[in-house]
Amino acid sequence: MKLHQSFLLSNFKLILSALIAVLLLSTPSASQLSSDFYSLSCPNVELIVRDTVRSASEIDSTIPGKLLRLLFHDCIVEGCDGSVLIEGNGTERSDPANKSLGGFYVVESAKRLLEFWCPGTVSCADILVLAARDAVEQTGGPSVEVPLGRRDGVVSSASNVRPNMVDTTFSVDQLAQRFTSKGLSMDDLVILSGAHTIGSSHCNTFSDRFQQSSGGNMVPIDNTLEKNYAEELARKCSADASDSTTVSNDPVSPFKFDNQYYGNLLANKGLLNSDSVLATDARTKSKVEAFSKSEDSFFTSWAESFVRLSSIGVKTGNAGVIRFSCTSGI
């Protein structure tokens, strides 16, 4: 009898060990991102975020552009860790470069829903990546499968913004240096700049291309801008325009994610200096020309570059936390 019990116990231990091994192999590694990271813990995460973005965009058509910009401003500073979402004095969000960001409430709304259905499971960093991904698809852009499993950062400092942020007055050399420092290539620079096919910019972000006359009007001083386009911008950003006045990044199809941005650059209608220089530098012009001719090529390249952008400096495993609220550091 004792021998029989010992045999059964031994077999039970072997079976248990085998089951544990199978579970470990079927569970996504905490140290890596995976497209099915939440398949067991929160299978509806993508549906919830997608519906939240769609509902917000139906009310406010500027939301997709804001979400895409919000992701870039998050990833380019501390990596894609949701630190730009944290409110408070001295945070990334408080820096002047981030004062014009929007769409925060969309991420927070999705987080509240996910905390109800899958408490303590989905990071704000992953929600932001999904929201930006969905913003592109819902405005006509490509569908992108993004790996998930990011964890949230708890450090958010305004002092980290300026040394990492891209400025609208940058030359191609400066842009390339900033992108290279984040592990992105020159091609990524041209591709990701295509995000400006949607969204808008405040007048002060391209004020260096104009000069204020004695009468208070804006006078174009940048001869690289197409004349009629420059005059149109001057009217929209006249002396009596408010500080909150914005202009669409793409004057042709401002709410559609397409390849029109590149055609605009070749027509000298790039809104920002950091846009225009891409069409005049030999290192980037050929890619601009190629994308202006083929939207399929742009979309294919976008999917690849977007994944690289959303993987910058990610925190996984024990390197981060799952914040209860995206606007707070806890």
Automatic annotation (TrEMBL):
Binding site for Ca(2+) 1: 74, 77, 79, 81, 83, 92
Residues at the site labelled Transition state stabilizer: 69
Positions bound to Ca(2+) 2: 197, 250, 258
MF terms (GO), sorted A to Z: heme binding; lactoperoxidase activity; metal ion binding
Active site residues per record: 73
PROSITE patterns associated with the record: PEROXIDASE_1 (PS00435), PEROXIDASE_4 (PS50873)
EC number per UniProt: 1.11.1.7
Location within or outside the cell: Secreted
GO biological process: hydrogen peroxide catabolic process; response to oxidative stress
Top-level taxon of the source organism: Eukaryota
Record bears the keyword Nucleus: no
Keywords associated with the record: Calcium, Disulfide bond, Heme, Hydrogen peroxide, Iron, Metal-binding, Oxidoreductase, Peroxidase, Pyrrolidone carboxylic acid, Secreted, Signal
SS bonds (residue pairs): 42-118, 75-80, 124-326, 203-237
SUPFAM superfamilies: Heme-dependent peroxidases
Gene Ontology CC annotation, any one: extracellular region
Signal peptide: 1-31
Class of this enzyme: oxidoreductase
Coiled coil: none
Cofactors, names only: Ca(2+); heme b
Free-text remark on how the cofactor is bound: Binds 2 calcium ions per subunit.
Plant heme peroxidase family profile domain sequence ranges: 32-330
Catalytic activity as recorded in UniProt: 2 a phenolic donor + H2O2 = 2 a phenolic radical donor + 2 H2O
Binding site for heme b: 196
Protein's job: Removal of H(2)O(2), oxidation of toxic reductants, biosynthesis and degradation of lignin, suberization, auxin catabolism, response to environmental stresses such as wounding, pathogen attack and oxidative stress. These functions might be dependent on each isozyme/isoform in each plant tissue.
Protein family: Belongs to the peroxidase family. Ascorbate peroxidase subfamily.
Protein name per Swiss-Prot or TrEMBL: Peroxidase
